[in-house]
From TrEMBL:
Residues 2-63 form the Insertion element IS402-like domain. Residues 100-112 have a biased composition (Basic residues). This is Transposase. Pfam families: DUF4096.
Length: 121
């Protein structure tokens, strides 16, 4: 389904790595959330997948592929647009824990010892 939407082999220069292998590499990274450098060797060099992902994103290839796949799914009535989210799985960032409830307050600090303030006054 995606092959006609992907760029053709360049007329000049070296041969590109197979699109199927690169798309599988990109899907692996996006599915696992791991860094590009942790791409398994069976997918080829991580830089190839990364550069192709970035290039296709800049050219709008991914957006066009998404529109095409959604159109095919809607034509087959094979898509369900109803979605739900369960708030019990949403986690707060670690820096948000334990924050003050009444806003930020600056402490009134005096420089010097407390005994110096009493002696001067």
């Amino acid at each position: 389904m995606l092959e006609p939407l992907l760029p053709a082999q360049p007329a000049r220069g070296g041969q590109w790595r197979d699109h199927r292998q690169v798309v599988n590499a990109i899907c692996c990274i996006k599915r696992t959330g791991s860094p590009w450098r942790d791409l398994p060797e069976r997918y080829g060099p991580w830089k190839t997948a990364y550069q192709r992902f970035r290039r296709w994103a800049a050219y709008g290839t991914w957006a066009m592929a998404k529109k095409h796949v959604v159109a095919l799914a809607e034509a087959d009535e094979d898509i369900d647009w109803d979605a739900q989210i369960d708030a019990t799985i949403v986690r707060v960032h670690q820096h948000a824990a334990g924050a003050r409830k009444r806003g930020f307050r600056v402490a009134n600090r005096q420089h010097g010892k407390p005994s110096d303030a009493r002696a001067a006054g």
